Every structure is written in structure tokens, then in C-alpha cells.
Amino acid sequence: MWTLTPAYAPRAKYELLQRRMATEARHADELKAIDAQLAEITAMEQAIDVFARKYKQAKPMQSSKTGAIHCSRLRLWREKMRLRTASGRW
Questions:
Q1: pTM of the prediction?
Q2: Using one digit for the tens of pLDDT, what is the confidence trace for 1-54?
Q3: In 4-41, which positions are buried (b, 16+ CB within 10 angstroms) versus exposed (e)?
Q4: CA-to-CA distance for 10 and 50, rounded, in angstroms?
Q5: For residues 61 and 67, is the Cβ–Cβ distance under 8 A?
Q6: Which of the pair, 46 or 68, is modelled with greater confidence?
Q7: Which residues contact residue 60 at a Cβ distance below 8 angstroms, ignoring those fewer than 6 apart?
């Protein structure tokens, strides 16, 4: 059998408050980490948008020969990037 005394209640309250404070601290740290990751993604989106606007082709290529060379180089570059990312060497 248990013998409860009036001293048990404050001690139990104290322990629960300590656990609550630790949980709140962990929660705050996790939220800070998530906010930092969201900020990184937002910055990346903005950089991509700026890049796309800056290098967006205004006019189509004039010559079909130039277009074919451009497409060929683009395919080679994409293949190179695919191989690089597949090997894990970013």
C-alpha cells in the first residue's frame, strides 16, 4: 500500500513542470530548425526565379542549325549532370 503525504503533491507538480519546460525547449529548438529550413527553401526559390527571369530566352533561335547545336549541347550537359548527381558528387 501507498502512504501519501501532503509533500508528494508539490514534488509531483515540480517534476511535471520540469518536464513541461524541457518539452517546450525542445519544441522551440525544432521550430527554429524548421524555420531555418523554410528560409533556405524560400531563398532558393527566389534565386531560381531571378535566374529564370534573367536568362529566359526572349526570342526563339533564328537558325535551325543553331537550334540543333544548342539542343545537342543541352542534351550533353543534361547527361553530364544526371551522371554527376547519380554518383552523389554534387
A1: 0.47
A2: 678 888 889 999 999 999 999 999 999 999 999 999 999 999 999 999 999 888
A3: eeeeeeeeeeeeeeeeeeeeeeeeeeeeeeeeeeeeee
A4: 59
A5: yes
A6: 46
A7: 67
Rg (alpha carbons) of the chain, rounded to whole number: 30
Cell 527554429 appears where? 32
Three-class DSSP labels, the chain = CCCCCCCHHHHHHHHHHHHHHHHHHHHHHHHHHHHHHHHHHHHHHHHHHHHHHHHCCCCCCCCHHHHHHHHHHHHHHHHHHHHHHHCCCC
Cell, residue 60: 526563339
